[in-house]
Design brief:
Layout lengths: L1 H14 L1 H6 L8 E7 L9 E10 L5 E7 L6 E5 L4 E3 L8 E5 L2 E6 L3 E9 L8 E13 L4 E13 L7 H12 L3 E2 L4 E8 L2 E9 L10 E4 L12 E5 L2 E7 L9 E6 L5 E8 L8 H19 L6 H13 L4 H31 L13 H18 L16 H15 L7 H8 L4 H24 L1 H5 L6 H56 L9 H14 L15 E2 L2 H8 L5 E6 L4 H11 L2 H10 L2 E6 L5 H9 L7 E5 L7 E2 L6 H5 L4
Parallel strand pairs: 11-18, 12-18, 19-21, 20-21
Antiparallel strand pairs: 1-2, 2-8, 3-7, 4-9, 5-8, 6-7, 9-10, 12-13, 13-16, 14-17, 15-16, 17-18, 20-22, 22-23
Helix pairs in contact: 4-9, 4-10, 5-10, 5-12, 6-8, 6-10, 7-12, 7-13, 9-10, 12-13
Organism: Sphingomonas molluscorum
Protein name: Protein-disulfide reductase DsbD domain-containing protein
Keywords: Cell membrane, Cytochrome c-type biogenesis, Membrane, Signal, Transmembrane, Transmembrane helix
Length: about 675
Amino acid sequence: MARFCFMLLAVLALLGPVGARAQAPNQGPHIAVRLVAETETPAAGDTVTLAFDSTPQPGWHGYWQNPGDAGVATRLDWALPAGMTAGPLLYPVPQRLTVAGLMNYVYEGPFAQLVRLKLAAGLAPGTRLPVRVRSDYLVCTEQLCVPEHADLAIDLTVGDGRITPERRALFDRWRAALPRPLGSPAQFAVVQEGQAARIRIGIPFPASQSAADAYFYPLTKGALSYSAPQRVARDGDLLVIETDAAEGATPERIEGVLATGTGQAFTVSARPGTVAEPRGHGSTILLALLGALTGGLILNVMPCVFPILSLKALHLARAGGSERGARQEALAYTAGVLVTCLALGGAMLALRAAGVAAGWAFQLQDPRVILLLLLLVTGVALNLAGLFTLPTPRFAGESGAAGAFATGALAAFVATPCTGPFLGAALGAALVLPTLAALAVFAGLGLGLALPFLLLGFVPALRRRLPRPGAWTGRLQRILSLPMFATALALAWILGQQAGVDGMAWGLGAALLLGLALWWTGLRQASGRPRAGWPMLPALLVAGLAIVSVQRAPARAEAAVAGTEPFSEARLAEHRGTGKPVFAYFTADWCVTCKVNEKTAIETARVRDAFRAKGVQVLVGDWTDGDPALGRFLEAHGRAGVPLYLWYTPGAEAPKVLPQLLTADMLASLPN
């Protein structure tokens, strides 16, 4: 009834805007709209993109093309010159707003809707093209709705289609907010549960791509219950979204937009099919707990944790027969591990709740954290190697709960770069579990990591089996520095992958400076000088500057064919001028169809040998991050998304557009 009343009032308001507007406080417009053209001089036969640049007043919102349980979509009334036609209105990804139990898909901040106008061929240069449009839209607060309209006008002139860099950058930013075609077909199934029905949508989406806070915005009206919660689960490369069906829904197709929580969104078209039911939480929680416990236990033999555990265990053996002290240290070490694991897991869940894609070790996606870990592990390795003495955390020094807690916290934090069996599946399952269950999984990981030391503290027989510390302990400590140095080397490699050669140089330079400062500190400690650690101050300052300065390098999709080059129109023109065939393909990491084609056809030995024999030049366009230049090239070839495969034969003016499903035979037999 609430939905019906709202819709009735909204429709009446749109039919009678004058009276409704007279009752609204703060006379509008509550959404300021301006019409912007990407170029004022479009070429004949070409297209020009217009933007409805909209800015709501604080507290007000506009509506998506499917407004949800309440609201009205924008309505356009065009007056165009002869020879010009308008395409559909393109909407950016909305936000969700629940008011009185009704789900609304809205824009609470600035947004831009785009539309493409097609010019007829043969228009004479200098022809004036007056464009007029009336935009009717609904603008609301949580208590009040007001219909508004904007009479917009812009005058274009047939010209050369030149676009200024400033205008190009502005429209590229607006295009980046639009959802992109997923490129892979989806399926849905209607599941009857008594008198109610649920809809399960299976969307192909690579397991390697994060979708920690995925949400499906339905475009097909009357198919899904908008206000019902959506349950998201993984099944390999399939993302399964399950929610309540709308009353009496019998859709033949479901279309919508999948927002992944990473800032990327994709248009999805699903046809009826079979979609397996996601596993229940009970078995998932149990398996995730067992996996996390086992995975945490295995982490103890990883090179980043084993040296710390070994020296702490030997220290516990050296502590003698104090059972109470051994138990205290074991509990403090376990507490340090658990607190760190729960803190990292809780931070990950908080980021997911805020709409940020995050998985376990999410902090390792930031090169600044990698550099911090690199310096920390380097310092630990140099300490174990005997370069200097660091009394806290106490690896093999005096007993104490504070030192054991700090050691456990350090072990857990340093363990995050390491991976082992069972952890991936267990922590991946935590992403789709309720908050308390997910935290229990992280606690299971911490318990597994702390379990060996906890057993040593509470089982005297195990401590008695440990060798007694002696002169050999120092040599062992030096040996155990080697896996820590290996971990530092691995972190430097990860830093290079994330931040490029420049970022890795920053990291190695900071580590070198840190090593020199620690060496100087060790010399001062050996001579008994007071304030031996003062050389660390400039080293820490430089390290802090390096951590703040390092930046992530742009991520690129991995080329599937050896010898490929990144696509650019300039490079394409150069290769075509050599008289050799060119194969250009356009892919993205989130496109399952693209990856299947690459694995089963493009990167096979047969295709590689055939291309080499024909002298084929291969160019790959990576659209993972929505490169606007590639987006314009795709549009120019009649495609809104990937995959796209083009074969350029020498002498031919236009390329041959290959099917979206490739085979090795098809590629190997292409004419040269």
